[in-house]
Design brief:
- The chain contains three helices and no strands.
- By secondary structure, the protein is mainly alpha-helical.
- It has a domain at 11-45.
Length: 52
């Protein structure tokens, strides 16, 4: 399953929209789930590392 990032929406905005009060927490949870940072994932650099 891939995630869609609206064109150039900042990770901060995505985190806040998802209900995270702290962007660092969102990034840590994203990394734990997908094995990479949101920036690398959405830039297409680490999509193959996604955990299942």
């Amino acid at each position: 399953m891939g995630l869609a990032r609206p064109s150039q929406t900042p990770v901060t905005r995505i985190a806040l929209d998802l209900g995270y009060d702290n962007v660092s927490t969102f990034i840590a949870m994203f990394r734990r789930t997908f094995g990479t940072t949101p920036k690398k994932y959405f830039d297409g650099r680490d999509r193959g590392r996604q955990r299942r």
